[in-house]
Specification:
The structure is a homotetramer. Chain A is mainly α and about 180 residues long. The first copy, chain A, has two domains: about 1-45, Arc Repressor Mutant, subunit A (Orthogonal Bundle), CATH 1.10.10.60; about 45-175. Chain A contains nine helices and no strands. Chain A has helices at about 5-20, 25-35, 35-45, 45-70, 75-95, 100-105, 115-135, 135-155, 160-175. In chain A, α1 (about 5-20) crosses α4 (about 45-70), α4 (about 45-70) crosses α5 and α8 (about 135-155) packs antiparallel against α9 (about 160-175). At the C-D interface, α6, α7, α8 and α9 of C face α6, α7, α8 and α9 of D. The structure holds a DNA duplex (21 and 21 nucleotides).
Chain lengths: ~180, ~180, ~180, ~180
DNA sequence: CATGAATGAGACTTCATTCAT
DNA sequence: CATGAATGAAGTCTCATTCAT
């Protein structure tokens, strides 16, 4: 059996992604991780602390999956297009749960800078991901914003329709 | 003094928009609205019910403000551009609180169809708003998605930078 | 059955006096008072709040008992002497638990001014009790201090010995 | 660097005197003493055990300071008076924290005989201190009790007023 | 239509102590 | 003798909702 800390992180990964931050209580986490409550607090100063850890793990996971997903593509253009396909893949896999980072952004008080900055940093990385591929600040942000909308709108409408539309738009722009 | 129901709705309007759904308790609402608890439940079956009412009021308010904001513009193009300026205006006014609808989307359990459908309907109306202006399904959705990102990214980074960028992009596209 | 609030106050009265402030948890109080946890917090904002209420009730009770105990005495001198006998009576009744006010004084952080001032006010009243009887500021404080020591030393040694000694001293001084 | 045991005892000395028994956790002690948890339990069976050690150290310290403080005085009378000045000195030094022994008396369950007897023994020594100086059982206890009140009342009112009053009373009695 | 007491189920957190390494 | 992860039990407090008046 894995260490309590590992079990906590794993379960948190699942639950925060599936149910969100506020809907997931410490009690559920420790009960599903089969860990004593005090063991939890040995490793994490607070729920907020756990949230930061979760976002870090999620960050690694998400970019890992994304890079893996587009790795097989050769051309720049198809890499970009595949990034959108990655969203479809994730929606299928995670049942249109949207972006964990943006979801938590909505769930925390606006003045929680500790968590906010982790989220900002994740999105800054994503913005940079497109910048490095496209090497044109304005166009890369254009794609980034269509990408962001794609995530949100597919979460909202439980449908990949607008992802596909974005793909088409980007395809046309990218010539 | 206004009726209890009106007072509840008004206070809820302020509090949900400012603090979010989960961070606003029934107790705060009834105390600030100076209404008895059971009077509250006379008018609203549950907090969820109140949320639906809030979203409806917010919908009216938001589109009202938007239409008023762009009414003075004559040309189609400047109407669109001004819609983005409206976001800047709202951010200033509401301190980068983002979109109430998307925020609540993140705060509720995924299977809450009652609230979900109100949010979907609001965004469908917004999508239609651009469609009616632009009369081109693909292009209007393109603008819609940049508009949505603009809201979210400005909330995330507490900055209007990407709204301005979107404006520039749209300006170029719209020729 | 009495109201929840009454039951809480009664049980608290017993438990704080018997076990002290820190050793008595909210859980024990509500379980013995057969009250829901949230009912408790309907009536008392916090444990500190309950403590203030307890001290007020205790204040009334303690002075009530004291005055009743010495009421039968005619002469000033015998009233004073009987006040010390009251301590013996209370020790017997409450098993040498000492002064609730001084006990709590030791249990709270030094900067808790809310509770501190209630304790100070109780002791100021006691000091005044002797002043009104004796009408001589220095002598009344002398008696007050012997009275205070009597309480503490009898708590410490679980014995009325020093109360009796104080009685003798005061008797001799009072001629 | 001193031995772990010494470091524990030193830190405990500071913390128990400053914050009290219940407000000082084992974790704070070991962290400030820079000692491993199990090392702590190597040396002390329990927190209660540590408390006993603390009281012993405090006993030595307190009487050491007291005796040193009054050593310079020649006459019996001025030794007694100076004992009261010692209380003023300690209040200034320790910010009206009162008597560590009486504070802990209030913080422990009444049936904790192990700690109780250490406290009793300390106060018996103090009572004896006055007896040896004054050689008159009744008068020495009279002074002892004024001394005890002086400590407590100055803790309660954060003021040396009643110490000064006691000094005056004792001065008059002592002729 | 108004009142506010009462509630069950949960929230998050900390305590002193033990144990495997 | 040192380390720090793991623990059970308990801590205080808040939630949306119901009910008797």
């Amino acid at each position: 059996m894995k260490s309590p800390r590992e079990r906590i992180v794993e379960i948190t990964f699942e639950l925060f992604a599936k149910q969100g931050y506020n809907s997931t209580g410490i009690n559920q986490i420790i009960s599903e991780a089969e860990v004593a409550k005090a063991s939890f607090y040995q490793h994490f100063k607070s729920k907020e602390d756990l949230c930061v850890e979760f976002l870090k793990v999620r960050h690694e996971y998400w970019f890992g999956e994304l890079n893996h997903f587009i790795a097989k593509e050769k051309s720049l253009k198809s890499k970009i297009i595949n990034a959108f396909d990655f969203l479809v893949y994730m929606n299928e896999k995670e049942n249109f749960r949207g972006c964990s980072f943006l979801n938590i952004l909505s769930e925390i008080p606006m003045d929680n800078t500790k968590i906010l900055s982790v989220i900002q940093s994740h999105k800054a990385d994503l913005r940079n991901f497109f910048l490095e591929l496209l090497d044109d600040n304005e166009f890369s942000d254009h794609v980034y914003m269509l990408f962001e909308s794609s995530i949100i709108e597919s979460q909202l409408f439980k449908s990949n329709e607008l992802i596909e539309k974005s793909k088409k738009i980007v395809t046309n722009l990218i010539q």
